[in-house]
What we know:
Oligomer: single chain
Helix content: 40-55%
Number of domains: 1
Largest sheet: 7 strands, parallel
Shape: globular
Distance between the termini: 70 Å
Amino acid sequence: MNTPDTPVWLVTGCSTGFGRSIAAHLLDQGYRVVATARKTEQLKDLAERGDALILPLDVTSDSSVAEAVRRAEEHFGHIDVLVNNAGIGYFAAIEESDPAAIEKLFDVNFHGVSRMVRAVLPGMRARRSGSIVNLTSVGGLLGHPAVGYYCATKFAVEGFSESLHSEVASLGIHVMCVEPGAFRTDWAGSSQETQTPIADYDATAGQARRDYNASVGTQPGDPARAAQAIEVAVTAPTPPRHLLLGNIAYDAAVAKLDDLRGEFGTWESTARGADFPTTA
Length: 280
């Protein structure tokens, strides 16, 4: 049974995918959960699983974010863990990408995270306690064809999170990036695509788009297991700053590290030679 000391988690984007799985898992484990989505009618069943506060939230709206955080803190007294899960995808080569689609990607995937973080930080600072979990992607660590601007938003959240960690760790607030690979959610199926493909990119971005769409329903990652992994990491005595999820993400990220290490070493003398010469 919940007590006043039971942690409160606020999860964004709970209508489908990771958000729904995370909220459902947390409620099943007895946590108090603020489950949010733009359309709350899709969340009614979550209220039956435990102590859930269902709230409308549009992460692209300053007023919506402020109101959701206000109501959550008014209802539960505080927020212990913020999970920034809300996000969208877009499939297009860089040159094919529509400016309006790019702007929307950044407004949801990056600025939405920033809005939520800035809204919960005053309460967390006051208590000198809290966790901020930002779901990025393995695409926040390395780029892929057809999702260049999506990856750019996730790279942005990674850099934002690194800086945030350096600012709030001494205040008792932990920041974690979660980097999933291919999981069986509706992300690919619900992502918009370019309407003006360019033939020269068909073998790269075009093939990638076809592969993403063909993968729907067959991705190896299990969202329920991901939700459990996130809970384990957040509640660990020493939580990680980065949590890779799935074999695809782990293998790709380690390969990227090896590639960077090799290239840095090859060009070390050139890199170090860019400083003013030292004097004896």
